[in-house]
Amino acid sequence: MDKTPYTRFRNAVNLPLVIWTVALLIYGSVMVSSATTGMGSGMLTRQLVGIAVGLVPLVVAWVLDYKVLKHWMGPLLVGLCILLISPRIPGLGYEAGGATSWLQLFGVRLFQPSEPAKLIFIAVMAAVVSEYKGRIDKPQDVLRVISYMGLALVLILMQPDLGTGLVFVAIAAGMLLVGGMKGRWFLIFGLAAVVAVGGILLLDTALDNMAGEDVALKDYQKDRLLVFIDNTRDPQGAGYNLAQSKIAVGSGGVSGKGLAAGTQSNLNFLPERHTDFIFAVLGEELGFTGAVLLLGLYLALLISALAISTSSRDLYGALICAGIISMWSFQILENIGMTIGMMPITGIPLPFMSFGSSAMVTNLGAVGMLLSVWSRRYGT
Questions:
Q1: Is 209 among the domain residues?
Q2: Which single residue of 5, 149, 254, 371 has CA 20 to 30 Å from 132?
Q3: Range with the lowest mean pLDDT among 71-80, 94-103, 157-166?
Q4: Mean of the per-residue pLDDT values for the chain?
Q5: What is the DSSP letter of 88?
Q6: How much is the pLDDT for 204?
Q7: In this structure, is residue 212 part of a structural domain?
Q8: CA separation for the pair 42, 376 (Å, rounded)
């Protein structure tokens, strides 16, 4: 007997995922509108245009059978490298926030190629990891899988964009965990990373003096690390952003000051208030209540994505979901954490909330990939 229209709809659409995504889009648009008060009436329009554009990759990814991506690993890997290298091509790169991570054409800033590269990286890593059928233990297998992450990380650090590089590491870690890499390898690479970072910090000045320029860490990156270690450090200089963000969040109290009524943002004390620090605006204007609501929506979104992952009949689909969950989870923790001094300050946007079309299109494309896995969970 033919399935009813409702059954076909339920099989094709994960309603909770769609509901929570729409709720976050509405919440984010309201906060962008509030955060950009006094910055011009076109900011909200640009955000809505970004959402509209993002519906295209959402629908395309949803309609496309995600399994075909596994057979396109070679071209996707080439495309990933081209995207990550493109900002370093003379005349195409645009510097913002200390990193040449944007593309421009004829002086017009276009988009941040590392954003769509995240989804391509997820597809490539899923293809590689799924080859091992849930067991990655041999040293040669581990090194092969890690090399793909290493390639992407090196190209990202060439920009240099340490924050986005950490997102790629988080994506890979989540996928490797689901893909069956043994715990001891996580411990080994974790310790190696700690030693490497410690060594870089100790040798950074010497390396810079020898080369005559910044080799490993830029000055602003070192300042951010020092401010993270000591939140009270240089409140009028390197620690200014964090100090103003904590004032904004703390002054919101339980219910906040009201939309567009935040003094830290409206008086321009809070930098990057519509992008990197939009959570601080939310905390000041909607208070603890608004923050809890946002965290609840994120939790619901991640649980929906997790349910899709567990419903997948093949490892490749589950790995795609794991990559998206890891990407969102890390960005949420990092962005919110940096506004209250719990994480180092980076230029990582808050999913579905921060102003910016590149990240919005990527996040909506990720929703499309999740829907593709869901709609084909029965092998159709």
A1: no
A2: 371
A3: 94-103
A4: 87
A5: G
A6: 67
A7: no
A8: 40
**99 belongs to a structural domain:** yes
Residue 200 belongs to some domain of the structure: no
The total number of structural domains that make up the chain? 1
CA distance 290 to 114: 30
Choose the weakest-confidence range: 21-25, 103-107, 163-167, 185-189: 103-107
**55-59, 265-269, 272-276: range with highest mean pLDDT:** 55-59
DSSP string, 318-358: HHHHHHHHHHHHHHHHHHHHHHTTSS----PPPTTTSS-HH
CA–CA gap between residue 248 and residue 263 (Å, rounded): 8
Domain that holds residue 88: 5-181+218-375
10 Å CB burial of residue 262 (0-12, 13-18, 19+) is buried
Which two three-digit tokens encode residue 242? Answer: 């964090």
Verdict on whether the full-model pTM lies above 0.70: yes
Q: How far is CA 216 from CA 157, 192, 220, 221, in A?
A: 9, 17, 12, 10
- What residue type is assigned to position 359 of the chain? A
Measured on CA atoms in the order 327, 54, 99, 334, is the torsion positive or negative?
negative
